[in-house]
Amino acid sequence: MKDAFGLPQSLLVLGGTSEIALATARRLIARRTRVVWLAGRPSPALEQAAEQLRGCGADVHTVAFDALDPHSHETVLGKVFAEGDIDMVLLAFGILGDQANDERDPAAAVRVAQTNYTGAVSAGLVSARALQAQGHGSLVVLSSVAGERARRSNFIYGSSKAGLDAFAQGLGDALHGTGVHVMVVRPGFVRSKMTAGLPEAPLATTPEAVATAVELGLRRRSETVWVPGTLRAVMSALRHVPRGVFRRLPI
Amino acid sequence: MGDTVTVMPADTAPVIVTGWGRTAPTAARPIRPRTYEEAVAAVRGCGARGAVPRGLGRAYGDAAQNAGGAVLDMTGLDRVHAIDADGGTVLCDAGVSLHRLMEVLLPLGWFVPVTPGTRYVTVGGAIGADIHGKNHHVSGSFSRHVLSLELLTADGEIRTVSSGTPLFDATAGGMGLTGVILTATIRLLPVETSLMSVDTERATDLDDLMARLTADDHRYRYSVAWIDLLARGAATGRAVLTRGDHAPLDALPARARRAPLDFRTPQFPAAPALFPEGLLSRTTVGLFNELWYRKAPRARTGQLQRISTFFHPLDGVPHWNRVYGRGGFVQYQFVVGHGREDALRRIVRRISEHRCPSFLAVLKRFGEADPGWLSFPVPGWTLALDIPAALPGLGGFLDELDEEVAAAGGRVYLAKDSRMRPELLAAMYPRLDDFRALRAELDPRAVFTSDLSRRLAL
Asked: Which CATH architecture has domain A10-246?
């Protein structure tokens, strides 16, 4: 069960090698979390992540999960929920793709969309139903500022996150009053292996900062969390910039 | 009631349930049995996520919540069955509130044996949390005055449980996890009037306070101290002591003597549903505490006060818990034994240094420990305080206090808890294993389950 500060005792991470997810897990383990399920494609990296979290003092299990195989989600996640209540699901999987390449390779672009959007729709709905049955829990969805307004430089990734973001907001409204809390987290540019080699955007942040914001959001039962918080104002302004100007902006 | 139909309420939609502190909301199916048969049917058919009885929802944390399961609202079973006005006992349903009991009993010259800081708790809740009051040093906890009770257990049977049996001691303070209390027979306290004779004095710091409480507590039936936890330096732990007893008839002025057992409870408007967040800041609470301390007389004896003024000042404002805003609040209450005053001093100093904006902090000396396996009181010092849940760093700070309390052999009160680590529980409650064993035998499928029992693996 979550405590008075919204801190979970058990955590299911979908996308178990995500750096943001692992930073969040480390932080929550330091507070209250004792049981962690890392769901992801079986890989040495996943096992390594599990080992690292065990070192923090949690009881960590890994489970084979593929965002691109939505038909398996019911079975895979059902098994996790059958083992005991999950106080928080962190939907953290996602790929950035390679915009320049993906524009020429529609199949690769579709893979971005399927991972970030349709995979999340499936896993989100499966998790939501399980959380609703237990009458409590938080579904924390890692969205992105890229979804707030599609940009020339990464609109394939951006559009997938826009879909995810809208889906998660709607899901949050659908689950309002069921005891399940859906929190959409919109980080800006996060310095991680996913963005390694990319030019850094203004207001860049770190996985640890996202983890801190998630913890605060859980306590406040926030529905939307921007990281850093100033991005909320910045994106609110950018959203209203005329198209002709927006497409010329160096962002 | 003349109600002969015992149709179970159809599958009701889940509603959001919280404790009095309004933190950690979860959804549960509410079921409000109006007869014992309905209660039995509710327990038998409660489903995989079980059920937990709930009274008036005054437990601060998640004791009367059951995410995904059923919450049995017991306030529908609210009959006072029999009063022995000569012997001083009452047999009533568990859903009867202490407020109702006072209304019924005071005109007959009887009072409830123990009352906490609110009258709006049910008899079932009073036993389940084994509540204590300002008279603990004299009278012990509520369950000590319960002669027997009827308990609806997980198998759907109703058992009569007498005081002194293992099942009684597991149920007293058992947080509703041994079954649903349906009725209780309670021994009462005779009173001549409905007024209290109160002595008030100030203590300049914590040591002064403890010295005064130690020296004179035995002279009073009721004793408690409001403590200013924002005072720092030499004034750390300054307090206002209020102690007294039921006023005898001859202490009343002539006019009041005409209706000495009149029970009146002033009501103010309820706190609004939307209270501004952060109204209770260090500044405002600091100011309040300063005023409260200064307005208290240095020493005054024999002041006549209403029962509601002396025992239940907050009951005058319905929904006072809303003043903490949307974020809710945490109540922290611990006890450390006699001889561990060092730990108490350290904790008070730490709270004062941490600047917890707490305007409802009370210190009390407990008497003998109570027989309930999970009963809270042990002989020593208990401190209770409210803190807005939104205070930054509060979770970690309270964890540190837990460590300090556990290291001193003390414990934290489960009826108020909403955030403790499960690991410390066994050290704080040595009879936890007995409790778990009894539950495993009596309720192997864990029909009685609450958010508290899940969180702390009770």
From this structure: 3-Layer(aba) Sandwich (3.40)
